[in-house]
């Protein structure tokens, strides 16, 4: 499907979406007052998996955490790929083809694809091969709105959002459009990654999105021959950053060839080796995120009021 056909197909869903944010006071509205209409009306929590830094394994983390929530915790889980320019979720979840439409309601909604008990939506479903998405901000925001609000998610306990890297216009707009319950930040231990992750934390704090904690990815490598453990990207950086923000480290995921191989094959390690140590690491993170969401409850503040027509 060409990019033009993708746009035409999305427009053919027959609805329009508008996000509004009144200055000042709008950001002070409590979570329960945020309007979540159309496909989001039965979603309890929306969690951003973010890093503000590319190449730290954020998408792989988002996929395995979502699968762990569904298969290990027994939650009803959705996964939204918010990276319009570089969607990788279709590969990681082994899903292809454009979504079907549910035209039963007053406005047509897209039906998410499902694998590993996780309902999934990505703009990658509308692209073919290595076709680039050469779009400016307004088109990106419109496509994202249609995926978020125009998908028939159904009843979900948690919708996991794989955020794009950076702290620019796209990330701010997403943070304002999504009624987020919280954000979990992914980083490797090295300082060059943590610099951007700290900026990402500051961005979400400015948007009044609760920070759930930090995830240390590629924390160490264990030699398969001799068992020697090496901290390739350094040690202690994520813990220091978490302490600076008064947060916890939700978990550590090692640098392991199985994560890369299973991800490229579209079989997340949580699903392909559910009893292994790697699956246990992701499951622990999923448990901690779910626990933090329960602790926050109805007392949290969130993103601006969202109106969908």
From TrEMBL:
<dbReference type="GO" id="GO:0032981">
    <property type="term" value="P:mitochondrial respiratory chain complex I assembly"/>
</dbReference>
<dbReference type="GO" id="GO:0016226">
    <property type="term" value="P:iron-sulfur cluster assembly"/>
</dbReference>
<dbReference type="InterPro" id="IPR044304">
    <property type="entry name" value="NUBPL-like"/>
</dbReference>
<dbReference type="InterPro" id="IPR000808">
    <property type="entry name" value="Mrp-like_CS"/>
</dbReference>
<keyword id="KW-0547">Nucleotide-binding</keyword>
<dbReference type="GO" id="GO:0005524">
    <property type="term" value="F:ATP binding"/>
</dbReference>
<dbReference type="InterPro" id="IPR033756">
    <property type="entry name" value="YlxH/NBP35"/>
</dbReference>
<dbReference type="GO" id="GO:0005739">
    <property type="term" value="C:mitochondrion"/>
</dbReference>
<protein>
    <submittedName>
        <fullName>Uncharacterized protein</fullName>
    </submittedName>
</protein>
<keyword id="KW-0067">ATP-binding</keyword>
<keyword id="KW-0479">Metal-binding</keyword>
<dbReference type="InterPro" id="IPR027417">
    <property type="entry name" value="P-loop_NTPase"/>
</dbReference>
<dbReference type="GO" id="GO:0046872">
    <property type="term" value="F:metal ion binding"/>
</dbReference>
<dbReference type="GO" id="GO:0051539">
    <property type="term" value="F:4 iron, 4 sulfur cluster binding"/>
</dbReference>
<comment type="similarity">
    <text>Belongs to the Mrp/NBP35 ATP-binding proteins family.</text>
</comment>
<dbReference type="Pfam" id="PF10609">
    <property type="entry name" value="ParA"/>
</dbReference>
<dbReference type="InterPro" id="IPR019591">
    <property type="entry name" value="Mrp/NBP35_ATP-bd"/>
</dbReference>
<dbReference type="GO" id="GO:0140663">
    <property type="term" value="F:ATP-dependent FeS chaperone activity"/>
</dbReference>
<keyword id="KW-0411">Iron-sulfur</keyword>
<keyword id="KW-0408">Iron</keyword>
């Amino acid at each position: 499907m060409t990019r033009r056909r993708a746009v035409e197909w999305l427009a053919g869903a027959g609805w329009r979406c508008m996000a509004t944010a009144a200055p000042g006071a709008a950001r002070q509205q409590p979570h329960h007052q945020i309007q979540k209409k159309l496909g989001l009306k039965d979603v309890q929590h929306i969690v951003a998996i973010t890093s503000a830094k590319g190449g730290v394994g954020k998408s792989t983390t988002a996929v395995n955490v979502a699968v762990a929530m569904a298969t290990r915790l027994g939650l009803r889980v959705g996964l939204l790929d918010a990276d319009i320019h570089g969607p990788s979720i279709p590969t990681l979840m082994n899903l292809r083809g454009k979504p079907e439409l549910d035209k039963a309601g007053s406005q047509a909604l897209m039906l998410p694809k499902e694998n590993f008990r996780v309902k999934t939506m990505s703009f990658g479903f509308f692209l073919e091969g290595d076709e680039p998405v050469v779009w400016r901000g307004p088109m990106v925001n419109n496509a994202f709105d249609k995926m978020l609000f125009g998908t028939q998610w159904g009843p979900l306990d948690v919708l996991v959002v794989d955020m794009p890297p950076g702290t620019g216009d796209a990330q701010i707009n997403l943070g304002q459009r999504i009624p987020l319950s919280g954000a979990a930040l992914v980083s490797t231990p090295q300082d060059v990654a943590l610099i951007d992750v700290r900026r990402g934390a500051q961005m979400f704090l400015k948007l009044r999105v609760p920070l759930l904690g930090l995830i240390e990815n590629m924390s160490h490598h264990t030699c398969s021959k001799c068992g020697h453990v090496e901290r390739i990207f350094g040690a202690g950086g994520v813990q220091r950053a978490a302490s600076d923000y008064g947060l916890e480290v939700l978990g550590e995921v090692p640098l392991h060839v199985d994560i890369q191989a299973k991800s490229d094959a579209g079989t997340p390690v949580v699903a392909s080796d559910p009893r292994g140590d790697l699956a246990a690491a992701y499951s622990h993170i999923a448990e901690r995120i779910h626990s933090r969401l329960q602790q926050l409850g109805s007392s949290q503040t969130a993103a601006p009021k969202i109106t969908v027509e």
